[in-house]
Specification:
The chain has 166 residues and is mainly beta. Helices cover 7% and strands 28% of the residues. The protein has one domain.
């Protein structure tokens, strides 16, 4: 019988092949196509009127259908964030960088995004930001079409406008 190793394993390096076929569905397919056109779509809850980005079929809050697709702004407010000082395998980002939740204008909840073009210590809750898109001809209709968000220089949003949109 084999004995367990005396020292703990710190990491294992191997190649893993995970073939899969992703089917976006109608809402997600339209959302991805809109990104290629520098537009962001959400779906509006038939009961509450809240808009969810990316679009979903039913509201997680009311369970009502979200049958209408609506366009939201490509700018919003930082609701939460963290400064990342650890490199991520497969990502070529200069350390430190900021990962944030951004509540887009017109959306009920936040999306996950990078914040760049400012010092990490300058990022704060309530900071107004805007999307930086890949150039025309380079967008492919995927989440990387928005490269990151950057500060707009507008006045900060008051906490009561974003505290429930984390």
């Amino acid at each position: 019988m084999n004995e367990p190793p005396k020292e703990g394993i710190k990491y294992v390096e191997t190649t893993v092949r995970l073939p899969y076929h992703y089917v976006a569905g109608d809402y997600k397919a339209l959302y991805l196509l809109a990104l290629k056109e520098k537009r962001i779509l959400g779906s509006k809850c038939d009961t509450t009127g809240k808009v969810f980005v990316p679009p979903i079929v039913a509201s997680p809050e009311s369970f009502a259908p979200c049958s209408q697709l609506v366009e939201v702004a490509d700018r919003g407010v930082v609701t939460t964030f963290c400064v990342v000082n650890i490199p991520v395998i497969g990502r070529n980002l200069e350390l430190p960088y900021v990962a944030a939740s951004v509540a887009l204008d017109g959306a009920a909840i936040s999306i996950f995004a990078l914040i760049q073009e400012c010092k990490p210590q300058d990022v704060h809750m309530g900071m107004r930001v805007e999307a930086v898109w890949k150039p025309d001809g380079e967008r492919q209709g995927d989440h990387e079409d928005i490269q990151y968000f950057r500060p707009t220089g507008e006045p900060d949003a008051p906490p009561e406008t974003y505290i429930n949109r984390l």
